[in-house]
Write a structure and sequence with these properties.
CATH architecture: Orthogonal Bundle
CATH class: Mainly Alpha
Structural class: alpha+beta
Distance between the termini: 6 Å
CATH topology: Arc Repressor Mutant, subunit A
Number of domains: 1
Strand order of the largest sheet: 1-3-2
Radius of gyration: 11 Å
Shape: globular
Largest sheet: 3 strands, antiparallel
């Protein structure tokens, strides 16, 4: 797993469900890198995506409660 995905994982671990924009702010990663990291976490079945009722253009991202142990790979 790339370092950017591990960093996003750690942010989600501490922050719970947040938007992609908030992840980019907290990690200081470019938006494209955050999208890539989120896609990698989604492929590994670690990520859970929810609808964001305050702004329908965005999604909330958080960790899957039934996540496999793949972060250390």
């Amino acid at each position: 797993m790339p370092p950017s995905a591990k960093l996003v994982f750690k942010v989600l671990e501490s922050s719970g469900f947040i938007t992609q924009k908030d992840i980019a702010k907290q990690t200081y990663l470019p938006a494209r890198t955050v999208r890539y990291a989120l896609n990698r976490l989604k492929e590994e079945k670690v990520l859970q995506e929810r609808f964001y009722f305050q702004d329908a253009r965005q999604s909330l991202y958080g960790l899957n409660v039934m996540m496999p142990e793949v972060v250390n790979k």
